[in-house]
Amino acid sequence: MKKITVIGTGYVGLVSGAGISDFGNNVCCSDIDKEKIELLNKGEIPIYEPSLDELVNRNVKSKRLIFSNNVEDSVQSAEVIFIAVGTPEDKTGNADITTILEVAELIGKNLNNYKVICTKSTVPVGTGKKIIDVINKYNQNNIEFDYCSNPEFLREGKAVSDFLHPDRVVLGVASKKAYDYMKDVYRTLYINKTPLIHTTIETAEMIKYAANAFLALKISYINEVANLCDEIGADINIVTEALGSDGRISPKFLHPGPGFGGSCFPKDTKALIHVAKKYDLDMNTIDAAIKTNNYQRIRMFNKIENLLEGNLKNKKIAVLGLAFKQETDDVRESAAIDIILELINREVSIKAYDPVANDSMKKLIPDIEYKLSWQSAVKECDAVVIMTEWNEFRGMNLEELKELMFTPIILDTRNILNISELKRLEFKFDNVGRK
Ligand code: NAD
User: Fold this and answer.
1) CA pair distance 338, 154, nearest whole angstrom
2) Could you give the strand order of the β-sheet that contains 369-370, starting from the edge strand earlier in sequence?
């Protein structure tokens, strides 16, 4: 079992750190965000992620998991260092690896004995080499180290079970010694026969982008099919049920909606295109997936406009769901942002509610009304738009909803409401591909 430091205690770093400590390793999750570390040291979890509190508390109690602000110290005391800081989109559409390289510099300056430096953040192909160069530049005493690319595939909302029971672990690592270290870190999974895919650094980096871009393609594809269903009067739910039962296709990521969001697909698809451009290659399918995704936001907005017969000015609309998907408080690139901003542009007054993401959205869009229940959000509204597929919205009492609203008009961008019930209650409604 290894002594590990995870640098960056965000969605990926915290789940990975807690998960790796659950595998029996001693882990220090470090971060420059003092407030975050203080919260964690008080036993509070800074993000909403189901079962994460249990996982963290269990490992803190057993003294395998600690949190620190002192990134330098945590580097010096580790045998394996995971880098899990953010790689947001830069102005050109590429992944911004500035923070990654800053961390590499800090690691280089603090190397005091052999370590494996392992990147979990999603980084463009070729970043591993850059990280190695930066570490070497600051590694004054020529201390031995190895590098590993270990991309992370967890999904927010299911991050804990994804991390503890992954489909595979990808290890892009050249040296046998470092591979053995990594095998030891993931020993629990290895013993349980989780496939460990041992490959080169570049291949590991590529696998992550190829996986995310493929899933984004699947979402855009099903959104286009749903839009066509809208026009020809077919039912996308039955189409996806039949498609998904084909073993070659699988039902996952075949849910039509307002388009993909979150901190990964939007930036990772663009970054892959950016990398391909460097080699004079077009990624036409991914380009199309992005275009379809942008159009899907516009299509949802047009649906609201049509439901209200073009009269948006001074209307009151309730937006139910702000997170980019259910079971997370993450609003990065959420479709709800585009819809809300466009409604604000059209002088609509908005009452928003999300079971856990009100505070995250408030930081981005402070000037709308945030409510603490769906009932208070929809009260006396001219229309309701469901943007996130929370179970709470699936279970809404539609009679109560109708009574509370000024006019019973609803756009269900996640296809979670019962159409017969909406018809029985004489709602004016629309959805994605279920006319
Ligand atoms: P995040 O923004 O939630 O977390 C990043 C953390 O790094 C923050 O807590 C920040 O304070 C910390 N940090 C920044 N600079 C630092 C420094 N110099 N030293 C120490 N800590 C520092 O990001 P995230 O969503 O966890 O994503 C991290 C990486 O993982 C990204 O590359 C992302 O693409 C990838 N990824 C994300 C997901 C996901 O679902 N969120 C899934 C797979 C991969």
Assistant:
1) 25
2) 369-370, 349-353, 316-320, 383-386, 409-412, 428-430
- Output the pLDDT for position 1: 83
Using a 6 Å cutoff on CB, does residue 154 contact ligand 1?
Answer: yes
Distance CA 401, CA 378 (A): 7
Using CA atoms, how far residue 11 sits from 95, 153, 202, 214, 391, in Å, is: 18, 12, 24, 22, 22
Is 148 known to be catalytic? no
- Each residue's pLDDT tens digit, 55-71: 999 999 999 999 999 99
Structure token pair of residue 45: 């979890």
Give the distance (Å) from ligand 1 centre to CA of residue 83.
Answer: 9
Sign of the torsion angle spanned by Cα atoms 328, 329, 331, 335: positive
B/e letters for 207-241, b = 16+ CB within 10 Å, e = fewer, are bbbebbbebbbbbbbbbbbbbebbeeebebbebbe
Instruction: Answer yes or no: are the C-beta atoms of 93 and 283 closer than 8 Å.
Output: no
Residues 6+ apart with CB under 8 A from 363: none
Strand, coil or helix: what is 395? coil
* 181 pLDDT more than 90: yes
Query: Which residue's CA is minimally distant from atom 1 of ligand 1?
Result: 10
CB of residue 12 inside a 6 A radius of ligand 1: yes
The DSSP element (H or E) to which 98 belongs, if any, is helix 98-110
Task: Name the pLDDT band for 435 (thresholds 50, 70, 90).
Answer: confident
Our answer on whether the CB atom of 39 is closer than 6 Å to any ligand 1 atom is no
22: pLDDT confidence band, cut at 50, 70 and 90? very high
Please pick, among 148, 229, 264, 381, the residue that the annotation labels catalytic: 264
Q: Determine the residue of 29, 85, 215 to mutate for testing ligand 1's pocket, defined as the one with the most ligand atoms within 8 A of the Cβ atom.
A: 85
Q: Is 292:223 a contact under the CB 8 Å cutoff?
A: yes
| Percent above pLDDT 90 for the chain | 99
**83 within 8 A of 8, measured Cβ to Cβ:** yes
Widest CA span of the chain, in angstroms? 76
What is the whole-number distance in angstroms between the Cα of residue 433 and the centre of ligand 1? Answer: 35
Mean pLDDT of 290-310: 98
Q: Which residues pair with 83 in a beta bridge?
A: 7, 119
| Helix spans in 192-283 (H) | 201-232, 236-244, 265-278
Instruction: Tell me which residue has its CA closest to atom 28 in ligand 1.
Output: 86
Go through the domains of the chain in sequence order and give each one's CATH number. 3-199 (3.40.50.720), 204-435 (3.40.50.720)
